[in-house]
Recover the amino acids of this structure.
């Protein structure tokens, strides 16, 4: 089972958006049984809140199915439950490390590492108001991540996939 946790500041825009986009991709590729996909926040500001309405609208315009999301905060215990923690920017990485502690297995990464623009940062659309642009970035990141994972799955059915 491939276990991914996507992380952003509030868990109401980017991380939940990428969760739904990747889930849609794995569902359409009939890989859902191989994946556990979730999302979390580094802050406590939005805990319990649903996806932010403008982000939901952008995902719907992109034909991404939306689930019944409620924001939650990343927990130290999550480190043992997921293979990778994927953030969107430097602030996410900083706070993931604060919450999770040491990262001996190098599980903390950025989504855009899996694209041809690995240095690209996905800015928080709550501030920029660029929800459609953010959705496009998340889609590119998910396509790259899934391609990376499919190659690993086909190369090694028996070992862990990162």
């Amino acid at each position: 089972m491939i276990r991914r946790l996507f992380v952003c500041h509030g868990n109401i825009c980017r991380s939940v958006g990428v969760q739904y986009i990747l889930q849609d991709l794995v569902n359409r590729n009939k890989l859902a049984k191989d994946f556990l996909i979730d999302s979390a926040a580094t802050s406590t500001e939005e805990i319990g809140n649903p996806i932010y309405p403008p982000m939901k609208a952008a995902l719907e315009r992109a034909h991404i199915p939306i689930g019944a999301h409620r924001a939650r905060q990343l927990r130290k215990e999550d480190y043992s439950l997921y293979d990778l923690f994927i953030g969107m920017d430097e602030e996410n990485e900083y706070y993931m490390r604060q919450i999770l502690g040491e990262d001996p297995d190098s599980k903390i990464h950025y989504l855009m590492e899996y694209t041809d623009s690995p240095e690209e940062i996905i800015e928080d659309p709550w501030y920029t108001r660029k929800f459609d642009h953010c959705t496009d970035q998340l889609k590119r990141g998910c396509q790259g991540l899934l391609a990376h994972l499919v190659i690993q799955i086909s190369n090694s059915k028996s070992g862990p996939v990162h």
Q: What stands out?
A: The longest helix spans residues 131-155. The CA atoms of residues 152 and 161 lie 6 Å apart. The chain has one domain: 2-155. The domain at 2-155 is CATH 3.40.50.2300 (Rossmann fold).
